[in-house]
Amino acid sequence: MNQVLFVSFCALLGLSQAATLSSGKIVGGFQIDIAEVPHQVSLQRGGHHFCGGSIISPRWVLTAAHCTVNTDPAVYTIRAGSTDRTDGGVVVNVISVNPHPEYDGDSYNYDFSLLELAESVGFSRSIDAVALPEADETVEDGVMCTVSGWGETQNILEFNRLLRAVNVPSYNQKKCAKALAKVVPITEQMICAGYAAGGKDSCQGDSGGPLVADGKLIGVVSWGKGCALPKLPGVYARVSSVRDWIREVSEV
């Protein structure tokens, strides 16, 4: 795939201008039960899934800013507590959309958005908050991470109505920056993950979803050049870089 494609279904739904970045399919992964990743939510518009998100408290969800270019909260709901993106769990309205003030839609820098829910989601085996890293907490190269979502799979035998996940290692920042230098600059607000050989990645429809390592939400699915291509890791918004902003807006 020579052209870099947009990271999520947001553009297809008329939620943002056409862009050149791609993200969001769980490629090379496996089906997973929501109880194994109870922080995962489906961000929906008109009852249809288009992005993911992570529960960080009973009233707050963290997703990607490029998923919420339309900041009218009435547009969005989240489905929590269900492996099936179309049924089950609980559906909760969003009452405020808070993209990071420094978000850049051209470079995807600071690709974070906090969603305030109309009511608390009741925590259970299938609904729970994910732990957050400390401000500027680092991640060593090669740490195994799990990314999950309902995005496309690039495999007609792998059904994406049910939640899927893939394990990928964190990727050296300098090597990632060099590999993607001609696409978008890699900043300190980004973290890369994937295999040099490719084959496993997130892609369209997973945007905004969680990248978790050692029980902490270290990244938000953001963008990438194609999906699961060799020497082109996926790029995630680095949660530790905005820990103080998250606390300021959500008190979490």
Write the layout of secondary structure elements.
Layout: E1 30-31, E2 40-45, E3 48-57, E4 60-63, E5 76-80, E6 90-99, E7 113-117, E8 144-149, E9 164-169, H1 173-179, E10 190-193, E11 210-213, E12 216-223, E13 234-238, H2 243-250
Kindly describe this structure.
By secondary structure, the chain is mainly beta. It has helices spanning 173-179, 243-250; strands spanning 30-31, 40-45, 48-57, 60-63, 76-80, 90-99, 113-117, 144-149, 164-169, 190-193, 210-213, 216-223, 234-238. The chain has a seven-stranded antiparallel beta sheet, with no helix packed on it. It has a six-stranded antiparallel barrel with strand order 2-3-4-7-6-5. The radius of gyration is 16 Å and the shape is globular. It starts with 29 loop residues before the first strand and ends with a helix. The model is unreliable at 1-25 and 154-158 (pLDDT under 50).
